[in-house]
Write a structure and sequence with these properties.
It is built from 10 helices and 15 strands. Strand 10 and strand 11 form a beta hairpin. With 371 residues, the chain is of the alpha+beta class.
Length: 371
């Protein structure tokens, strides 16, 4: 598990300001624009953003401190959350460099931002993987507040111009010949503030809800397959589109069949009589029972092949095959009559049942030396 505090170089009791300060410093140092072509710096930058996304959010930080994970963080960065890096860096650039260059970046607007992607781990049976299935998933996620429609303000009472910066998003301080511009601390550079927060979402513009999503699992999926459900991630900010939902598939082990790619393998017992004389037997398949012919004199371990009885090829046509390995099931208990018949069979065959394994080896070597 990643240690987000160690990644940002801060203590576990760090304040919000300390977290933000550490993030700014590291993000500027490892930003891809400052390290073109440096894959190590790029990966470090992703880690820094992932850590900040968790620790800057009080709810996610509390979950992380308690359970060692933060809901939604891993899914976002695990599925291409890098698009948010430029957004985060832009805010840092405005905050830091804007102070020295007179706020040339201008007022920071409320940008429409895509919502976070989510991950869901789904376990299914082999039968469901073979034939496909439909699942109803309950997904906890942030959704746009239906009362304020994402504005954060009570209906009819939208944001007002920030009285501190007069809507500019920054304040200016004159010191001699120098004019220093700072991001407005009251509106955080947006130029507006919410005076009457929405009672439903407390001014956040989003609310936590559980949504039921219907997922169609196609035939042929296997462990490790990732299914994408477009638009079923968390709600975007300021009118941005929602993220996506990624479902990770795990197929449970089957008590009889073993899957290898698109083929199915199994083992079926046969009796000594069936192996010696031959027989027609029924064997299980994923579709139901099927008949195979056991030729006379079949040895234990022989493999039989059923074409087209395996797993469908995902996104293609046709199915794999089924391979059946037979083994001779030796009875553990015999009736007196059965023992008598087997001894008679051995005598007719010229087999000495009282001869030990070592005796057979000794006779074999003696036979070779006589030659």
């Amino acid at each position: 598990m990643k240690d987000y505090y160690e990644i940002l170089g801060i203590s576990r009791d760090a304040t919000e300001e300390e977290i933000k300060r550490a993030y700014r410093k590291l993000a500027l140092k490892y930003h891809p624009d400052r390290n073109p072509g440096d894959k190590t710096a790029e990966e470090r930058f992703k880690e820094i953003n992932e850590a900040y996304a968790c620790l800057s959010d009080p709810e996610k930080r509390a979950n992380y401190d308690r359970f060692g994970t933060a809901e939604g963080v891993g899914a976002d960065f695990g599925f291409g959350g890098f698009s948010d890096f430029a957004s985060n860096f832009s805010d840092i650039f405005d905050d830091i460099f804007g102070d020295f260059f007179g706020g040339f970046t201008g007022r920071r607007r409320r940008r429409a931002t895509k919502g976070q992607d989510l991950r869901y781990d789904l376990e299914i049976t082999l039968e469901e993987a073979v034939f496909g299935t439909q699942k109803r998933l309950t997904i906890p996620r942030w959704e746009t507040c239906h009362v304020c429609e994402g504005t954060g303000s009570m209906p009819g009472r939208g944001p007002v111009v920030c009285p501190t910066c007069k809507g500019a998003g920054h304040t200016r301080l004159q010191q001699g010949f120098f004019s220093i511009s700072r991001t407005c601390g009251r509106c955080n550079g947006t130029g507006s503030i919410i005076t009457d927060p929405c009672k439903e979402c407390k001014g956040h513009g989003r609310v936590k809800k559980k949504r039921v999503v219907t997922l169609k699992v196609p035939p042929g999926v296997d462990t490790g397959i990732r299914l994408k459900v477009t638009g079923e991630g968390e709600a975007g900010s300021y009118g941005g589109p929602p993220g996506d939902l990624y479902v990770m598939i795990t197929v449970k082990p089957h008590p009889f069949f073993k899957r290898k790619g698109n083929d199915l393998h199994c083992e079926v017992p046969i009796s000594f009589v069936q192996a010696a004389l031959g027989a027609e037997i029924e064997v299980p398949t994923i579709d139901g029972n099927a008949k195979i012919t056991i030729p006379a004199g079949t040895p234990s371990g022989r493999v039989f092949h059923l074409k087209g009885k395996g797993v469908p090829r995902l996104g293609s046509y046709g199915r794999g095959d089924q391979y059946i390995t037979v083994y001779i099931d030796v009875p553990k208990k015999l009736t007196p009559r059965q023992r008598e018949l087997l001894k008679e069979f051995a005598e007719i065959s010229g087999e000495n049942t009282s001869e030990t394994w070592m005796d057979k080896i000794r006779h074999l070597f003696n036979h070779k030396e006589a030659k």
